[in-house]
């Protein structure tokens, strides 16, 4: 018992020491995960993706570095990716079987776990902003279809014509799918959902996700992106998560909440681990970073075991900015006040350590 109390005290001290070193802010973004082929990625294509990811990262980072809110930072980053035709969200969203673009988005504030989401909207340029308006100006968490659009009109959102969202590449993917009787995975290769997670200088976490779903979706299909707990979750006590991938599997695992719940439990135990004689050991910052990575990887492993693929980004109250994906690539980026600033596409391209004080 004495041992345990001493270890808890030690862990708390190491926690406090780490908090001094930890980054004041942290941001991670994704633009979709999937089967990305390095040979099919021309230097021009790569440069275009990297430029838009960097623009999104810079927009969010500037807000955080200026002392702004995590919620504002993730919205700024996501809007840039929704406006880019390269990603499957907002402009450039995939087509449904019926040749429309139906958009889903969700957002969550880790301070009070307030959340907003929309599904199947067709005329809102930036669905992430509508999701946030559901959060702040309604009594609800999720609105769908025509009702969500009526709400948008009432709240002063402009009606964006359907042609705005349509791009030739996405139309061609639908036509190929129909002509060759392919599955969405055959034509999408990557999922292209966008998302952002942030820790601000006040210690608040936020998460948001936006998508067009999957090519050829029918019957009002909705994936994980607008579902709080599956595609998006934020809780100041644990972490902020945004997911991308084959939504049906992320829904079944409840990926975003599952990661936060496991991290909350680990933190509640002060990340204690035990030596080979059973005595508790206070963890080093590196060990905590590894635990965070292990938790994300374990939940993604669960997704893979069921047959699903994709990835997640997360940030923690300590400032870890972590990626985990079981695909060949994930369009992604991260930046922290400790000087990390990088975008990457294929596996293993990160240069920075996930440990906050490195
Ligand atoms: N992850 C996005 C979707 O499945 O719709």
Structural overview:
With 358 residues, the chain is of the alpha+beta class. The chain has one domain (2-346): Glutamine Phosphoribosylpyrophosphate, subunit 1, domain 1 (4-Layer Sandwich). The chain is built from 10 helices and 14 strands. An 8-stranded mixed sheet has the order 4-3-2-6-5-1-13-14. Strands 7-8-11-12 form a 4-stranded antiparallel sheet. A two-stranded antiparallel sheet has the order 9-10. Strand 5 (194-199) and strand 6 form a beta hairpin. Helix 8 (247-253) packs across helix 10 and helix 9 packs antiparallel against helix 10 (285-306). The longest helix is centred in the first third of the chain and has 23 residues, at 43-65. The relative contact order is 0.18. Residues 1-20 have low confidence and may be disordered. Bound molecules: glycine. Glycine (GLY) binds at residues 191, 193, 211, 213-214, 223-225, 244-247.
Biggest sheet record: 8 strands, mixed
Backbone structural class: alpha+beta
Beta-strand residue percentage: 15-25%
Q: What series of H and E elements makes up the topology?
A: HEHHEEHEHHHEEEEHHEEHEEEE
Number of helices: 10
Number-wise, the strands total: 14
Looking at the overall shape, the CATH architecture is 4-Layer Sandwich
Silhouette = globular
- Helical residues, percent: 25-40%
Sequence of strands across the biggest β-sheet:
4-3-2-6-5-1-13-14
What CATH first level would be assigned? Alpha Beta
What can be said about this structure in brief?
The protein is an alpha+beta fold and about 350 residues long. It is about 40% helix and about 20% strand.
């Amino acid at each position: 018992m004495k041992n345990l109390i001493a270890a808890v005290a030690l862990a708390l001290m190491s926690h406090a020491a780490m908090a001094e070193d930890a980054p004041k802010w942290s941001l991670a973004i994704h633009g979709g995960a999937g089967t990305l082929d390095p040979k099919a990625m021309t230097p021009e294509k790569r440069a275009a993706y990297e430029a838009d990811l960097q623009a999104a990262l810079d927009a969010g980072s500037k807000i955080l570095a200026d002392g702004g809110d995590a919620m504002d930072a993730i919205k700024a980053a996501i809007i840039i990716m929704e406006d880019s035709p390269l990603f499957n969200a907002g402009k450039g969203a995939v087509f449904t079987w019926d040749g429309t673009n139906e958009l889903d988005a969700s957002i969550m504030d880790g301070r009070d776990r307030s959340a907003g989401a929309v599904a199947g909207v067709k005329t809102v340029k930036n669905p992430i902003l509508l999701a946030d308006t559901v959060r702040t100006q309604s009594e609800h968490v999720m609105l769908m279809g025509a009702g969500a659009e009526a709400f948008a009109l009432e709240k002063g959102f402009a009606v964006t014509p359907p042609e705005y969202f349509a791009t030739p590449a996405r139309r061609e993917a639908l036509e190929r799918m129909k002509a060759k009787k392919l599955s969405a995975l055959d034509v999408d290769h990557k999922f292209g959902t966008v998302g952002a997670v942030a820790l601000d200088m006040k210690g608040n976490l936020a998460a948001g996700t936006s998508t067009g779903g999957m090519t050829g979706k029918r019957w009002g299909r909705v994936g994980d992106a607008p579902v709080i707990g599956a595609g998006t979750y934020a809780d100041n006590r644990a972490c902020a998560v945004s997911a991308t991938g084959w939504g049906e599997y992320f829904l079944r695992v409840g990926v975003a909440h599952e990661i936060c719940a496991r991290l909350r439990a680990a933190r509640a135990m002060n990340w204690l681990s035990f030596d080979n004689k059973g005595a508790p050991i206070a963890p080093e910052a590196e060990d905590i970073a590894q635990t965070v990575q292990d938790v994300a990887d374990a939940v993604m492993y669960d997704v893979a075991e069921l047959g699903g693929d994709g990835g997640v980004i997360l940030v923690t109250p300590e400032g870890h900015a972590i990626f985990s994906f079981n695909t060949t690539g994930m369009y992604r980026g991260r930046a922290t006040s400790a000087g990390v600033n990088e975008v990457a596409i294929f596996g293993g391209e990160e240069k920075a350590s996930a440990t906050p004080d490195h």
